[in-house]
Amino acid sequence: SAKAAGGNRIGAYTEADATRAGRRLKLEGALRGALERSELSLCYQPIYAASGRLRGFEALLRWNHPELGAISPAEFVPLAEQTGLIVPIGEWVIREACRIHREATAKGHADIVMAVNLSPVQLRVPSFVDGMLRLLEECGVPASGLELEITESIMLEAGERTIAALERLRQAGVRIALDDFGTGYASLTYLRELPIHTLKLDRSFIRPICHQHTERVIVESMIMLVHRLGLEVVAEGIEEEEQLALLREWGCDLLQGYLLGRPIEARGVGAHLPKLA
Ligand code: C2E
Ligand code: MG
Ligand code: MG
Ligand code: MG
What is the pTM of this model? Predict the structure, then answer.
């Protein structure tokens, strides 16, 4: 690692650092080929409209390492981004989400929306938008059946080219959501600059709404603000009935969280659908 290589700082290089760096290297190596070895899979977490109607699912990556077991996407997605592996992995994620959409359509749920998390690294590939639109056509999924979840980090290095790419996707009918809203900086600026349909209020705001006056006011006002801007809002991480009741009262459009449904494996999705029809 850079730290280990920094000769004069070797004294500050602790055993914990070495363990971390070792794990990182090991995971980085193992991530190459993880897709081919079928170690990656997707879980799907349902998202509901306030009416209780199923709106769709968010696809969430899972990695089952043969020795280390389940590795959190919070750990391996950054590695996949640093190595560029997120590009082929991300394409596979979109294909899989499209496959689920087709299956749902075959069962009569043609209007569900599959949400997929998008890394800034993917958007930086110059052919991304063309590839994406071709893929949708190939899979026979309407553009409106896909929602790309981006985070504010997309703006850090990007700027105009990224916004132009998102704009093209939006014009083609692909939906864009701003994920983890409220956790970054200058959030309101991005609301103005990004071509988005949906705003996802971060779990950290939802968690305290039953107990904390400030969060209550923030979330209720955010929902109003988002509506005034003509966007729709998703509340993430709903775990308690009381949170759900408040969010409904405040007119939150879409609801997601363990209370309503945990991420489920692909083969569970089909069984999930008829119940909700
Ligand atoms: P995210 O996109 O914000 O996804 C929501 C995360 O919150 C998921 O964690 C989900 O399992 C978790 N969650 C949902 N409801 C609840 C709840 O009620 N309580 C709690 N405590 N957690 C809840 P997960 O699956 O570990 O994913 C973590 C992050 O990894 C995602 O955050 C996303 O940023 C990233 N990620 C996952 N899949 C992909 C992918 O295919 N591509 C990219 N680029 N990133 C991904
Ligand atoms: Mg997300
Ligand atoms: Mg999120
Ligand atoms: Mg998150």
Answer: 0.93
The whole-angstrom separation of Cα 275 and Cα 106 is: 15
Q: What are phi and psi of 62, to 5 degrees?
A: -130, 140
Classify burial at 175, counting beta carbons within 10 Å of its beta carbon; exposed 0-12, middle 13-18, buried 19 or more: buried
Question: Can you tell me the distance from the alpha carbon of 57 to that of 223, in angstroms, rounded to the nearest whole number?
Answer: 21
The best mutation among 58, 60, 72 to test binding of ligand 1, ranked by most ligand atoms within 8 Å of the C-beta, falls on 60
Q: Using an 8 Å Cβ cutoff, are 162 and 124 in contact?
A: yes
AA letter at 63: W
Going by CA atoms, what residue is nearest to atom 19 of ligand 1? 237
Beta partners for 176? 148
SS3 label, residue 26: helix
Question: How far apart are alpha carbons 181 and 150 in whole angstroms?
Answer: 10
Q: Are 161 and 139 in contact (CB under 8 A)?
A: no
- Scan for tokens 């991300």, then name that residue: 90
Query: How many A from CA of 70 to the centre of ligand 2?
Result: 19
ipTM above 0.85? Answer: yes
Cα–Cα dist 197/233, whole Å: 9
Single-letter amino acid, residue 169 = L
pLDDT tens digits, residue range 41-80? 999 999 999 999 999 999 999 999 999 999 999 999 999 9
